Amino acid sequence: MKVATRLGLGFGAVVVLLLVLSVVSVMRLGAMNEGIRKITTDRYPKVVLSNEAIKRTIDNGRLLRSMLLSTSDEEREKFRRSVEANRPKISDALAKMEKLISTEKGQTLFKDITDKAAVLTPKYEQLYALAKTDPKRAAEFLRGEFADANNAYWASLETMAKFQSELMEQESAAADANYIDTRRLVIVLSAVAVLAAVVIACMITFDLVRRLGGEPGYAASLMEKVANGDLTAEVHTKPGDTTSMLFAVKQMVGKLQQVVNGQRAVVAAANRGNFDARVDLNGLQGFQREMGEGLNQLATTTGASIADVVRVMGAVSDGDLSKTIDQHYEGTFGELKEYANNTVAKLAQVVDGQRAVVAAANRGDFDARVDLNGLKGFQREMGEGLNQLATTTGASIADVVRVMGAMSDGDLTKTIDKDYEGAFAELKEYANNTVAKLAQVVNEVNNNAEALAAASEEVSATAQSLAQAASEQASSVEQTSASVEEMTASVAQNTENAKVTDAMASKAASEASEGGEAVRSTVSAMKQIATKVLIIDDIAYQTNLLALNAAIEAARAGEHGKGFAVVAAEVRKLAERSQVAAQEIAEVATSSVNLAERAGQMLGAMVPNIKRTSDLVQEITGASEEQSVGLGQINSAIGQLSQTTQQNASGSEELASTAEQMSSQAEELQQTMGFFKLNNNLKRRAQRDVIKVVKPRQFANHILASSIGEPDEADFVRY
């Protein structure tokens, strides 16, 4: 799997977990907000409206009793107006309650309230009429029929208030359960997100370090040293590391050192004339092994051929013409073997012929001749000269002067043809031998000059081919550099993806902070509700005290205060129940405040975790940037290697130029030796010798073509 794919999957998983955490938090906060909204805008107002209707209903009962106990019409009218003022307020409270009721049971309870109100409403007019005509019957009506209807109405209101209180408790319990579930889910998702981020970051970091085998900076510095030709750097790898880039670099450096040291040893030994040194091939593969094997084979073949030539030439220098080269060689070495053996054979033939001629001459017989069959070049010239010497020993001094004069003019074609004996024969022999030897030297110089010119052309062609091969190698290095640049671009893209992930994590932290602020606002609203409930509790407490005082006053009034005492007792009960309900509401509100505060604390704890995740993503971004720098340094090292290859090509071109200069100097030498005039036979033999010298060029071209071929990429690894 590519590094970019791993980074994308890792950061994608973290982002998905963060998104899931954010969505769940928002949904659960919405559910909590909906529960609180129901309590504040639906459940609690209906409880307040129910208590308002109950309170005014009880107040109406008290006012009606006071009205019947009053002795003047003005006081009775005052109490009646107070009752009539409460009745519209009760109706308004019930109308508001009806708009808020949404459940089927609530509608049933409200219908019961309206039914009881329909029964109670006519009772007020009946009571007013009786109070004007018959106060005693009015009091009986109030304690009897009116009290039953009023108590039934009050009971239905009490049932509604209790039902709304139960709904508030249910909403509170649901909010509590929702908070517990939300807290548990947020904790689990946060832990999973943080753990996943840490695990993914560690896995990606460990994988990159494992692939590199060490820090990117250390790997870049090693590659820079190798690119600069420094193979002395020691590569440190971790124990058991056999697959990292540093391990591959270590293996490469070790094998390059092995090849270079072997080449140095072989070249140094060859410079000393020792061709027995070899490159150690243990562990070498690919082009490294080919280089070592090629150098070893070259040293073996060169050493063997030179040893045979040295052996034969040593024997020749000692006067032993019985030694020859029997080992099989190919190409130039085969030609060298053939030339050496032919030289020995022809020299033996010439020497044997000379021995026969000299033996005959020692006996005064100049008819003996050297066998010239198969002789060429200076060997044939030696045989012909000896034969000519034998036939022309009688030349006169005039012929000698003629020959010497022609020699002074550079004409080596003149010889003494007449036969002489005695001193004249010796003079003729000396003169003809001098001409023959000088012609032989001039011929050999011409041959060597032409061979030197041909060899110079061969070296020039070889150098040009090497320059072309070096240029092709430089092109391959440039392609490798382009591949490294593409990998650098991939790492830069990974760095950009990490930055985008960091921005998303920062946004998630900001949204979590906003959620915490919303929770704090909710906490403030719940505290205000708790304050209002405390005020209601205080009012209920004061009402309880007033009812207690009224009961005391009724007790003091004796028989006349019994009805008022009953009303006071009922008011006290209602006040106590209102106080209990207010306390329960206060407890629920306090619990909701605590839950909301804990939710805010949890969101506050989430923000640092999300920021920590963002910091980890930033650290991964920094590591990717460091890797990009390391790849840039590797690309620079490859560029330096390309420059070195181009310098090699330039050196090959300079070698070709030097070879051309050598060819020019050989031509100048030929022009200088052109002063001497040779016979046609010598010129033809010189041309044949030059052709033989030029033949090895085909072998050199074959060697060059085989060494400069398409590069073998089988052992290269693409990253």
Automatic annotation (TrEMBL):
Residues 448-663 form the Methyl-accepting transducer domain. Its main location: membrane. GO terms for biological process: chemotaxis; signal transduction. The keyword Transmembrane applies. The chain crosses the membrane at residues 6-29, 185-206. Residues 300-352, 391-443 form the HAMP domain. GO terms for cellular component: plasma membrane. It is found in: Membrane. GO terms for molecular function: transmembrane signaling receptor activity. SUPFAM superfamilies: Methyl-accepting chemotaxis protein (MCP) signaling domain. Keywords: Chemotaxis, Membrane, Transducer, Transmembrane, Transmembrane helix. The keyword Iron does not apply. Belongs to the methyl-accepting chemotaxis (MCP) protein family. This is MCP four helix bundle domain-containing protein. The lineage of its organism: Bacteria, Pseudomonadati, Pseudomonadota, Betaproteobacteria, Burkholderiales.
